[in-house]
């Protein structure tokens, strides 16, 4: 297992090497090509993914238009979580923007970990809480911040995203036109 992944999990909750070995023994390594779907709308999300390498985007589709919900990059978790937890069809697509290597964990393996020891259940809860806080901050920013502020926050909090994701997708994510994003980037000199 890559040291960075161990470090991330250990940073969420202090966990000894033996527990980490058990934790990671439940994951399987998979590879996807750019353009592949990790989850397709209407299908059940069978896995929780941890991105070892690559980038993915979550997209809602309505009336032929795409709405980007989120991007996930190296060392981040990814899932259509509501579908994963409830076993119901996903309401969004998760698409690879680059070739990706992921560690995936099935729902049944996650439940086995939870039943095995409270340390695993606590780890899962802390990860879910962290993801919820990130989601809540994004929604708050979309509701309350102007376009320039949203861009500046994104550039400050996720500079790697600005560099790796095509700008027209960043514009969609920020809910602005590509021209507006270009103007904001020029005015803020964060290119």
The chain-level structural class is alpha+beta
Count of separate DSSP helical elements? 9
Q: Characterize the main sheet.
A: 4 strands, antiparallel
The value of Rg in angstroms is 17 Å
The N- to C-terminal Cα distance equals: 35 Å
The count of DSSP E runs of length 2 or more, i.e. the number of strands, is 8
Structural commentary:
With 191 residues, the protein is an alpha+beta fold. It has 9 helices and 8 strands. The strands form 2 sheets. The protein has a 4-stranded antiparallel beta sheet with strand order 1-8-3-6. The protein has a 4-stranded antiparallel beta sheet with strand order 2-7-4-5. Helix 4 packs across helix 5. The radius of gyration is 17 Å and the shape is globular. The mean pLDDT is 90.
How would you describe this structure in keywords?
4-stranded antiparallel beta sheet; globular; alpha+beta; Jelly Rolls; single chain; 191 residues; 23% strand
What's a concise summary of this model?
The chain has 191 residues and is α+β, with helices and mostly antiparallel strands. It has helices at residues 3-12, 17-25, 81-86, 107-116, 118-144, 147-157, 159-164, 167-174, 178-188, and strands spanning 28-32, 37-39, 47-53, 56-62, 65-72, 77-78, 93-96, 100-106. The mean pLDDT is 90.
SSE diagram, text form:
Blueprint: H1 3-12, H2 17-25, E1 28-32, E2 37-39, E3 47-53, E4 56-62, E5 65-72, E6 77-78, H3 81-86, E7 93-96, E8 100-106, H4 107-116, H5 118-144, H6 147-157, H7 159-164, H8 167-174, H9 178-188
Antiparallel strand pairs: 1-8, 2-7, 3-6, 3-8, 4-5, 4-7
Helix pairs in contact: 4-5, 6-9, 8-9
């Amino acid at each position: 297992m890559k040291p960075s992944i161990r470090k991330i999990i250990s940073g969420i909750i202090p966990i000894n090497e033996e527990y980490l070995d058990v934790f990671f023994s439940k994951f399987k390594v998979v590879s996807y090509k750019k353009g592949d779907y990790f989850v397709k709308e209407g299908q059940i999300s069978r896995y929780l993914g941890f991105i070892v390498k690559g980038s993915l985007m979550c997209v809602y589709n309505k009336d032929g238009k795409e709405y980007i919900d989120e991007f996930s990059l190296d060392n981040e978790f990814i899932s259509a979580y509501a579908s994963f937890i409830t076993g119901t069809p996903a309401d969004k697509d998760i698409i690879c923007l680059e070739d990706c290597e992921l560690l995936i964990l099935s729902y049944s393996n996650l439940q086995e970990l939870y039943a095995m020891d409270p340390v695993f259940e606590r780890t899962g809860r802390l990860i879910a809480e962290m993801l919820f806080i990130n989601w809540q901050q994004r929604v708050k920013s979309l509701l309350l911040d102007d376009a320039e502020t949203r861009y500046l926050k994104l550039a400050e909090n996720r500079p790697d995203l600005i560099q790796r994701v095509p700008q027209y997708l960043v514009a969609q994510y920020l809910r602005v036109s590509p021209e507006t994003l270009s103007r904001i980037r020029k005015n803020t000199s964060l290119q």
